[in-house]
Design goal:
The structure holds 2 protein chains of 2 kinds. Chain A is mainly alpha-helical. Chain A has 4 domains: 72 residues; 96 residues, no CATH class; 91 residues, no CATH class; 221 residues, Orthogonal Bundle (MetI-like fold), CATH 1.10.3720.10. Helix content of chain A is 65%, strand content 2%. Chain A has 25 helices and 4 strands. Chain A has a two-stranded antiparallel ribbon. The longest helix of chain A is centred in the N-terminal third of the chain and has 41 residues. Chain B has one domain: MetI-like (MetI-like fold). Helix content of chain B is 75%, strand content 0%. Chain B is built from 12 helices and no strands. Classes of the chains: A mainly alpha, B mainly alpha. Chain B: It is a multi-pass membrane protein.
């Protein structure tokens, strides 16, 4: 805080009486500066002070709340896992010409061999498998199974043949000397890349000293590839590989799991190899990236989200409508009663408003059960027979009843505050001019109360489309909302990207509605507890 | 609709009384589910409905065993204490930062006031499940997920809009010449704040604090995601109970919470009246 409040002469208000007009010059403040500057400075200070008072909270909210929301938005498009886990394969796939008609050529499998070997050591291949499984079922077990096999591939024949031809090739110290030579590295690119990956892997994942470990098969496999391409760098042992027995990596993968030669699988990997994807959003609206890269509908039995969005919408509308139906008479009664009795009745509205949400939800869970109070009463009154007790819970009916009860105060309070401003003399005037009760209400009172209906409806609708707790408890499977699906994807299926995309769509919907609410009512007019 | 004029026709009378009956039914719908919890919580059996003994008002049918369970069973006591450890700290954070910011926002010249206000109010607007998802993702990145402070920060963020709204509303009626007078009489800004401004806006601050407290105390969605088993709060325990196997102790817990809300409601009403009286007395 600045000390401007303690030095009155610098305050703009105080500067005026102390100011004096010099002949022909600008008006001066008490300290001799031009008054204009003094005022500007004071204004700047005041702005700065106000901003300093707000800034701690602003920073707090930015870190604790806005950053998480931004993180969610980012996660809904982020897809770096494929290119991070299989970097070489992604590059090789980009150059491959065989897809989508046939399985990719040998270079892609060679790249996949190196990538998968490393991923299996870091155990990151299972995460990638689960990620790709969202796009095509079966990929999770494919990656898991081959991740186990990849260390035992028959590529050790290269190791054996190289070591037999040149024993120095078994020595990791000699390797590290060669690999420090830039010319050798340039001549043997695949080998250098595999060597670097192996050193990193040995240090990071296994915490060993690479100079004391046996070099892995995939480095020799890369070396075979480089040398058979005709590379012969100076300083590197001259090994003739033309007589080597060779093995097809593609065949090894096919042996591990024949799905690896299925072009469809490769198409999925290729489609989801970029670092950012619209896949989660497409999934949120029951679409997916087809084999040719175009968006297309998912198979009918996998389409659930549009239906869920639609259900969330119409159930929220039903809840909003029941709130209007029940809230309007109450608000009308409260606004026409004398203030004292209205205040007493208002307590009946505010008590539910202030009661814990869990308490109200428990109450409904208890009341609506098959053996609950409502069914017992109905049976006792003879309205329903004991055998056909009503199914009021674990379906859409339960959600609508409980949510209407929970959101009703949010409808009554704005309605009441609008109706309070309608002068009662209007109704009297209408009646004195010959309108009957209904006409006076319908032509005079009702139109004046429409802003209240608008405000209350938007508020109730916004609150209800994002509700989670109550539908989860009383909604069963038929009465749940999109938010329950978001929670499911975060905590059970662990498909965070899809949860983030669904959340982003819901957020966009809510913000649009709030924008409308702001235009109609103004956020500043939000009142708490009437 | 206050009263029926003496010249009302039969039709008007019928309509008037049926309207009152409709209103009574709606009030019943609003209040009965909450009130019915209270007698049910004294059920001597493990049922969720009235037993014949209870309906016969037989003392045998009633017991406080669910309350004994609530106050002795660690399944309920640990969450209760967790709630009581989290809510006050979160409330303190929201009130301290929120009051400061509300005072800043009430100054006549604040750059980007609308934008700042929108950001500060946003935790109230964004659906809880979305806040919970975002916080879960982000707090796991920075290592706050599953910690006490993670939950406190999350709850403080959720409580801030209420503090901002109530304190800003109180400051609208605040006469700024009072602070100038204090400054003129030689008080420093801190002294002016605590001696002059704070006592006048106190009702707003306290009711904002109550809102923030109840937000944290009653919150379940965010703590479900941001917290771990060590931060299990009372609403979380109730939620688990409702979703998995429902035990009648939940009704005792609910009754305790209803009493807390009644106390809070009365406090707020008293504060509102006091604030109106104070504002009525202050000049301008």
């Amino acid at each position: 805080m600045t000390d401007s409040a303690t030095t009155p002469p610098r305050q703009p208000m105080a500067a005026l009486p102390g100011g004096e007009v010099t002949e022909g010059g600008p008006m001066l403040a008490a300290d001799g500066r031009p008054l204009k500057h003094s005022l500007k400075r004071a204004l700047r200070r005041e702005k700065l002070r106000a901003f300093l008072l707000v800034s701690p909270l602003l920073i707090f909210i930015l870190v604790a709340f806005v950053a998480p929301i931004a993180d969610m938005l980012f996660r809904s498009v982020e897809n770096q896992i494929v290119s991070e886990t299989l970097p070489r394969t992604v590059v090789a796939l980009r150059e491959d010409q065989n897809l989508p008609e046939a399985a990719p050529g040998e270079p892609v499998y060679e790249a996949l061999y190196t990538d998968l070997f490393i991923a299996a050591e870091y155990k990151s291949h299972t995460r990638l498998g689960s990620r790709l499984n969202y796009e095509m079922t079966g990929l999770s077990s494919l990656f898991r199974g081959t991740g186990r096999d990849v260390g035992r591939f028959d590529t050790d024949i290269y190791t054996d043949q190289f070591v037999e031809a040149e024993p120095a090739l078994e020595d990791p110290v000699a390797w590290s000397n060669w690999m420090a030579d830039d010319e050798i590295r340039a001549a043997l690119p695949a080998t250098a890349d595999a060597w670097d990956a192996w050193v990193k892997l040995t240090v990071e994942a296994n915490e060993d000293d690479p100079l004391e470990e046996d070099v892995e098969d995939f480095v020799y496999t890369a070396l075979y590839r480089d040398l058979s391409n005709g590379a012969a760098p100076a300083g590197f042992p001259d090994v003739d590989v033309s007589g080597f027995e060779s093995v097809s990596i593609k065949a090894l993968f096919e042996e591990s799991d024949e799905d690896w030669v299925d072009p469809e699988i490769w198409q999925v990997i290729k489609t989801y190899s970029p670092a950012y994807t619209d896949g989660y959003f497409l999934n949120s609206v029951d679409m997916m990236n087809g084999p040719d890269g175009d968006a297309q509908w998912r198979p009918a039995d996998e389409q659930i989200y549009l239906k869920l969005f639609w259900r969330t919408m119409w159930m929220s509308l039903a809840i909003t409508f029941s709130c209007i139906l029940l809230g309007y008479p109450i608000a009308y009664l409260l606004s026409t009663l004398p203030l004292r009795s209205a205040n007493v009745l208002m307590i009946l509205v505010l008590l539910p408003f202030w009661t814990s949400l869990l308490v109200r939800t428990s109450a409904w869970k208890v009341l609506l059960q098959q053996q609950g109070v409502i069914n017992d009463t109905l049976v006792w009154l003879g309205i329903v027979s004991d055998a056909n007790r009503l199914a009021l819970i674990n379906n859409a009916t339960g959600t609508v009843i409980a949510m209407t009860h929970i959101l009703l105060p949010f409808m009554i309070l704005p309605l009441y505050s609008v109706m309070k401003t309608i002068p009662p003399s209007y109704m009297r005037a209408a009646k004195s001019m010959g309108a009957n009760d209904w006409t006076a209400f319908w032509r005079v009172w009702f139109p004046l109360s429409v802003p209240g209906i608008g405000a209350g409806s938007i508020l109730a609708f916004i609150l209800s489309i994002g509700y989670y707790i109550t539908p989860e408890i009383v909604g069963g499977t038929e009465g749940v909302f999109i938010s329950n699906r978001i929670a499911y994807h975060i905590s059970s299926s662990l498909n965070w990207g899809l949860a983030a995309a669904l959340g982003t769509i819901l957020l966009a919907l809510v913000l649009t509605l709030y924008w409308v609410y702001d235009r109609i009512v103004g956020i500043d007019n939000v009142k708490l507890g009437g | 609709m206050a009263g029926l004029p003496p010249y009302a026709s039969t039709g008007q009378k019928v309509w008037h009384y049926s309207y009152l009956v409709i209103c009574a039914a709606i009030f019943f719908f609003l209040i009965a589910p909450i009130l019915i919890i209270i007698p049910l919580s004294f059920n001597a059996e493990n049922f969720f409905t009235f037993t014949p003994e209870m309906l016969a008002l037989d003392p045998e049918g009633y017991s406080t065993k669910h309350y004994r369970d609530f106050f002795t069973n660690p399944d309920w006591q640990v969450p209760l204490w967790n709630s009581l450890k989290i809510a006050p700290v979160a409330t303190f954070l929201s009130v301290a930062l929120g009051t400061l910011a509300a005072i800043g926002l009430s100054q006549p010249h604040v750059p980007f006031r609308r934008a700042i206000m929108a950001i500060l109010i946003s935790p109230m607007i964004v659906p809880l499940i979305i806040s919970a998802a975002g916080m879960y993702f982000f707090y796991s990145r920075i290592g706050l997920q599953g910690t006490y402070w993670g939950v406190v920060l999350a709850h403080a963020a959720l409580g801030i809009p209420f503090v901002i709204i109530t304190v800003t509303a109180t400051l609208v009626g605040f006469d700024r010449s009072l602070t100038r007078a204090a400054a003129n009489l030689g008080a420093g800004p801190v002294r002016t704040f605590f001696k002059v401004q704070m006592p006048l806006i106190l009702p707003g601050v306290v009711s904002g604090g109550l809102f923030a407290f109840i937000t944290s105390f009653d919150e379940v969605v965010v703590v479900l995601f941001v917290g771990s088993a060590g931060q299990k709060t009372l609403p979380w325990q109730m939620f688990t109970g409702l979703r998995e196997q429902i035990s009648p102790t939940i009704l005792a817990a609910a009754t305790v919470l209803i009493s807390i809300s009644v106390v809070l409601l009365v406090t707020l009403e008293v504060l509102r009246r006091r604030s109106e009286r104070l504002r009525g007395m202050s000049p301008g």
